[in-house]
Amino acid sequence: MISTITPFAALLAILGALLIGAISPGPSFVFVVRTAVAQSRAEGIASAFGMGVGAMIFGLLALLGLRTLMTEAAGLYMVLKIVGGLYLVYLAIRIWRGAREPISVAQGGATGVSSLGRAFGMALATQMSNPKIIAVFGAVFAALLPASRPLWLDLSLPALIFVQETAWYALVALAFSATRPRALYLGAKTWLDRTAGAVIGALGIRLILEARG
Fold this sequence. Notes:
It is a single chain. With 213 residues, the protein is an all-alpha fold. The protein has helices at 7-23, 27-38, 41-64, 66-72, 74-97, 113-128, 131-144, 151-176, 179-187, 189-212. Helix 1 (7-23) runs antiparallel to helix 7, helix 1 (7-23) packs parallel to helix 8 (151-176) and helix 2 (27-38) packs antiparallel against helix 6 (113-128). The mean pLDDT is 79.
């Protein structure tokens, strides 16, 4: 049945499946929410762009054979999983240790280029180490990408994935940087941060154990 799917239908199916994967909460969602609420709207948007670039890279890798890497280059894939797991654990420790620290929230002031770059870079690293996105991209492309396809599909998919992923996380950043969500977060910062840190740390540990197992 997959062999009869048209390239345009395959494009829509892949984008739809990836959007569902992005919407389901995970480390990337937690990172964008925390950045937008605890830092600034601009840094939240910068982190959304980092997520978009990360997703685009995975789109390119999937086109080049992410599924093949997962099944045939087992050693390299195991290393990538361990590195990703270690980064998630590192991020979890940072969030946990900073849970009780007060946050000075900027009120309409200018946000420096360095802070935007830091938000972008950490978001990109978080996206690239996200075990969920690796599995989702590998499965979706293997199931829905036609073996014989036109060049325009290969050229458009990574760009559209970037637009879709960035738009979703930008909406998340805009929503959670509003006054009321920010106030709710700051009021319950300690336990929310520790919950987020525990979840991200557990995902990182699971990824490491899966790689070693």
